[in-house]
Amino acid sequence: MTSKEILAFITEVGIVPVVRTSSAESAIQAVEAIYAGGVRAAEITMTVPGALHALEKVADRFGGKIVLGAGTVLDPETARACMLAGAEFFVTPNLRLSTIEMAKRYSKVICPGALTPTEVITAWEAGADVVKIFPCGNVGGAKYIKALKGPFPHIEMIPTGGVNLETAGDFLKAGACAVAVGGELVDAKSVKEGRFDIIENRARQYLAAIAKARSEMQA
């Protein structure tokens, strides 16, 4: 897939589940649950022990059936390693121009983290496909996205932090092209107890919330 196709797919899905678990095996199981729940995109963070192994396993298992991303990518070297492991898009918590350059060199989607208006426009001008607004929940949530979209209507944004079943629709209505959800979807308690059925069910609920919000936006 080209970078445009990857981004279009993520936007269509509307949600990027952030998988941050205590082991590679539990990360793989979480992605399987997310997939079973109907979500065809997932991000495995580099904070997962053996994250590259998890990326490889998921890429081998699902192939082109899921758009796989790497999260908490702090530098271009990590981005390249994730790329070789099968990641199609990269999400960073910070704005590092060299990481953006690495992703663009290989026509992959890069979603750098930014918060202030200056960081947002800097990321976009450097070639970001979409800007991760982080930590969005701490600075106003959906209202902050709406405020940013005022001067930057052309910049695609995905909020992280403060996104849950109740607020996901508000973020989309405020102008986000999709939302990223971490612990509200893949929570430590369910993973520890092996209750991946709970995660699967939540994935369905998020898809329903996104579909409802989008239908209301079109009405």
Write structural notes for this entry.
- This protein is an alpha/beta fold and 219 residues long.
- 49% of the residues lie in helices and 15% in strands.
- The chain contains ten helices and nine strands.
- It has helices spanning 3-13, 24-36, 51-62, 76-85, 97-105, 117-125, 142-149, 168-174, 188-192, 196-218; strands spanning 15-19, 41-45, 67-71, 89-91, 109-111, 113-114, 131-133, 157-159, 179-181.
- The protein has a six-stranded parallel beta sheet with strand order 5-4-3-2-1-9, with helices on both faces. The protein has a three-stranded parallel beta sheet with strand order 6-7-8, covered by helices on one side.
- Strand 2, helix 3 and strand 3 (67-71) form a beta-alpha-beta unit.
- Helix 2 runs parallel beside helix 3 (51-62), helix 4 (76-85) runs parallel beside helix 5 (97-105) and helix 8 runs parallel beside helix 10 (196-218).
- The longest helix has 23 residues, at 196-218.
- It is globular.
